[in-house]
Amino acid sequence: MTQSDRKIRVVLIGGSGYAGFEVVRWLLRHPNAKLVGVFGPSNELGPMEQFYPLLSAQTDLVQELFDADRVANIGADLAMLCVPHKVAMSYVPTLRAAGLRIIDWSADYRLTDAAVYEKWYSPHTDPDGLTDAVYGLPEYYRDAIAQASLVANPGCYPTCSILAIAPLLRAGLIKPDGIVINAISGVSGAGRTPHLKFHFPERNENFEPYGVGTHRHMPEIEQVLSDVSGQKAAVLFQPHLSPMDRGMLCSIYADPVDDVTDDQLTGALVQAYADEPFVRVRTDVLPASKYVATTNFCDVSADMVKGKVVLFSALDNVIKGASGQAIQNMNIMFGLDETTGLY
Amino acid sequence: MTQSDRKIRVVLIGGSGYAGFEVVRWLLRHPNAKLVGVFGPSNELGPMEQFYPLLSAQTDLVQELFDADRVANIGADLAMLCVPHKVAMSYVPTLRAAGLRIIDWSADYRLTDAAVYEKWYSPHTDPDGLTDAVYGLPEYYRDAIAQASLVANPGCYPTCSILAIAPLLRAGLIKPDGIVINAISGVSGAGRTPHLKFHFPERNENFEPYGVGTHRHMPEIEQVLSDVSGQKAAVLFQPHLSPMDRGMLCSIYADPVDDVTDDQLTGALVQAYADEPFVRVRTDVLPASKYVATTNFCDVSADMVKGKVVLFSALDNVIKGASGQAIQNMNIMFGLDETTGLY
Amino acid sequence: MTQSDRKIRVVLIGGSGYAGFEVVRWLLRHPNAKLVGVFGPSNELGPMEQFYPLLSAQTDLVQELFDADRVANIGADLAMLCVPHKVAMSYVPTLRAAGLRIIDWSADYRLTDAAVYEKWYSPHTDPDGLTDAVYGLPEYYRDAIAQASLVANPGCYPTCSILAIAPLLRAGLIKPDGIVINAISGVSGAGRTPHLKFHFPERNENFEPYGVGTHRHMPEIEQVLSDVSGQKAAVLFQPHLSPMDRGMLCSIYADPVDDVTDDQLTGALVQAYADEPFVRVRTDVLPASKYVATTNFCDVSADMVKGKVVLFSALDNVIKGASGQAIQNMNIMFGLDETTGLY
Amino acid sequence: MTQSDRKIRVVLIGGSGYAGFEVVRWLLRHPNAKLVGVFGPSNELGPMEQFYPLLSAQTDLVQELFDADRVANIGADLAMLCVPHKVAMSYVPTLRAAGLRIIDWSADYRLTDAAVYEKWYSPHTDPDGLTDAVYGLPEYYRDAIAQASLVANPGCYPTCSILAIAPLLRAGLIKPDGIVINAISGVSGAGRTPHLKFHFPERNENFEPYGVGTHRHMPEIEQVLSDVSGQKAAVLFQPHLSPMDRGMLCSIYADPVDDVTDDQLTGALVQAYADEPFVRVRTDVLPASKYVATTNFCDVSADMVKGKVVLFSALDNVIKGASGQAIQNMNIMFGLDETTGLY
């Protein structure tokens, strides 16, 4: 397929959540892709503008009942799945059999070891998919993504954490264990299902930790860090909710290997990301959530403080942490310039 | 009863919502009242600190299943009812029969005309209560409150609206119809039941009107304004939600009767509230929600602008609009200084 | 000039405020325009990324000292002026003499009558510019904008107000005087200069009116409503600040002419905006600030309530209320499709 | 002095900042203390209600020009100083000479070693005061506070950090070095001086680290932890700003000494604070800023996670982190029940 000839035809499975909403917006302005169908569960059908009044006059798309045959017959090149884990792996085999390439946003294909997946989630029902899946973090898996039939779009916390830590591990500047990731997220990261925890008067003016020792992003981070660095990494990942819509900041504390200077740390980041379009190594200001909000950038920094390596990384959890990264992966999969439609 | 001798014994019916929570806090610091029991529905039982971790170490009270006999036998002087309409009027007759005085926070006893109540709500099942009930706005019904066996605690929007408008109507400075009340409230006013409308990412950074022409506080406002001014008042009440926890501001536009000056308007407010402990007529700054937040004050102001009378009134919707006003009413009912425990 | 041949060359005067920042972002993603220079006052010079770290890696542009000759020699087609009033009219004559077309965001060229301008602002020093200037509200002045050498980009409040009111005035459905505009804005509308009023702890959880009877957008609204409807319009405009970054909602109350129905009101809005790309007449939901945030849309609605016409209009104050509207005007001035780069 | 006989007479030096405002509110409702004067610098004089319209009708106090003689002659028992460092130590000697006991909120008397103070601040000019000063953290210095003529009210971050860490250090459960304190604060902690950093549109929807390795609360925390545990403690303290008015959460990561269980950790906290009125050891929920907002409580918790000890502590930065703690200290200094006026 020559991209100049025609647009990538995309179907979206699960358009009524925040992830679906955002990817619809990105696809509407993408010059080389076209959203040709949206499908969802029986209790969430209807025009996209009904779920998101912001989309009125921008799209006539209607979320229709998911049916694997219909999706297969729509003539799409790519399916983006924004559905919960377990649901994803129940859809993927059929869609792949129908010849669609897939970007899956759930956790189902992120953990390469089914045993690890099953410890944190539930029995895995698509071992073939698991074998074929590529982890969709372009900065570390670009070549594999380009060829992949199935891309596992990373979690927001793992993207933010890995982009800061990986270069220092690779450069041998920090120890691979004892790494503490103190992460905060805006509330959109918790999804769109109402719950007392996310009720405005409970969340506003409130800052709160959660998931002590139990957050499922912990094994994902360890797997990828180990894979890209060739060392077994161990992290303590601790998330918190900050009273804001969107944005994420990871404050990371690691032990240096021997004597390490600020310059070495920053140098390793600069070297790792010199040619990356969406990672910015900051030395002028510290990363902050608002400096990356509404963009696909991840900002990172590194400093030595009292014998510890202190890293900060910031991204927009619904963009580089989800929808923007999916578009970036799509661009790679279909041979487009990686930044197409992302500025 | 001599107040110096013993404390008012209060039971709270419905402690798990925001209103209940706030009144618990006020009662805990009140020098002459004591909360002796909390009762609720079967699906919301348990220690108060379980609903509100903020209350830990401050109270051991447990919300127990509501049972009229138990409440009657607890030896209380006063029951505060923070339950939905319809539920209130199903509890009140029994509690009154048991000799308790009552402050009811629902709408069930606010509208004196059962026909009006039934048009906006549902059939009224306690006509005797309706006859005896006193509208709990101290600035206008203080004497009757002092004697009342049943006080209908006003809505937040009516309190805020009436305190600004009533003096000008009484003074004959504005016309009784065509009054526009453009009101905004913090989200706590919508209660504690999770719903997509009040999900943090939907509500944050969002300003939205609701209830066009249908808000049930409209007839309540008209009834009280008519009653205190002796003229049939007609208002257009339009509420909005502002992205904040608490606070309320009414911007009110009325037509003057003949020529009216700023001084006459402000003078009427000052005269009306000169001796009121909780209404402040502002000429130094405009009323704003933060100037009254966490207090039982209502701030009001008046100006002539381009031939219209422009009034502002601000209060904390969960205090002067609910819990603080209930405490103020309790103080009056039991012969205490009206400000006891309210600063 | 054929737009397919080359891009519109734009210079920005005043890039360090929020308006400048937003227009830089729009221009960076615009397919047919290119920002070729940024100029500012001596105390605000430096790389754009220094003012806005979000812009790092997206632009190397540096805000340089404003110098009319340099601007003239840069070979630009269009100058966008985001400078305060008075400063604007001191720059405009020179820039026009150098052959640049201009979109000015200040108030200097919005009021067609110099006497009115001088009553609300200061002496006017560019009568020729005032004569030539076209009010940049595309929905009402599209043809003149296309030919204009100088466009006065409207204020955010006037855009939001006029788009709701004008169709009903034109259709003879509402009276031209006694119109009350109760407006709220996010805090970005107050600009980027720190002040106690906009200090986070003063503004957060606060809702506050300001500028009673004195807001300079009042004469602008009246002028445009009068001009487009052929009747002398009189409005009472009352602004408020809501604790949020961006967004604007006008709640408008007008008197109907004789008997008017909801259908007539909505019908007049639908007819006025059937072919407009950026005005949406809402009947599914009420306009709300979040439904238009980050877009160039203005949402409007109309209802009859208790004998009054109630209108709502919402827009993003920094987009349709400023930068997006400027891009829309630029597209019209240079013969592009009006929506280019704006979705 | 018998407290039942008369009230403690308090003067406040520096009433126009947030700390002053809050302590005025606490003193207004305190049954055994009375604010008899407020003094400030020449550019911030006037009625307290002018600085804080919320205080209207609650106090007639006027902030008058600070003059040591006048303060001395006012017949006060206690001076609370809410002035910047350096200013505090220029006032304290005179006030002490006049016989006033003092609670100082600045950093001037917190660091017992003048050399450490001078490294982080400036030359110390009151060595006598430094010798006499008692660190005002009641949970650890209660007896000394009772006798003190000069109390150094702790910083908000140190209070929050120390209350979580100290019991575990004392119990020998964690190592005294390598402790990471990842702290977040609401924006009121930054004071009331407007600055672009704290301008609403810059701060809202933004989460940001600051002061990497340079925050002056680091030596204060280390000094107190070392003092109360008898071991030289070393901490890495990293603060962040969260978009909210008030509230503070410290997420603390420490290395356990040998094998330590959750029960041992929690047990040490429970034992330390069993009789403390304002520290709550949480096992039902994790500490969160909203569970302590508007109260003088500090909530703490401890868990073992992947070989690290993870502590959380939360308090209201303007209450237990400032004004409430000052009142608690005052109660101790004057022989009152420590909780008087603090619920």
Structural description of this entry:
Four copies of one chain form a homotetramer. The first copy, chain A, is of the alpha/beta class and 343 residues long. The first copy, chain A, has two domains: 8-132, NAD(P)-binding Rossmann-like Domain (Rossmann fold, 3-Layer(aba) Sandwich), CATH 3.40.50; 157-316, Dihydrodipicolinate Reductase, domain 2 (2-Layer Sandwich), CATH 3.30.360. The first copy, chain A, has helices spanning 18-28, 48-51, 68-73, 87-97, 114-120, 127-132, 138-147, 156-170, 200-203, 217-229, 262-273, 289-292, 319-333, and strands at residues 8-13, 33-40, 46-47, 62-65, 78-81, 101-104, 134-135, 150-152, 179-185, 208-209, 235-241, 248-254, 279-281, 298-305, 308-315. In chain A, the strands form two sheets. In chain A, strands 3-4-2-1-5-6-8-7 form an eight-stranded mixed sheet, sandwiched between helices. In chain A, strand 1 (8-13), helix 1 and strand 2 form a beta-alpha-beta unit. In chain A, helix 8 (156-170) runs parallel beside helix 10. The longest helix of chain A has 15 residues, at 156-170.
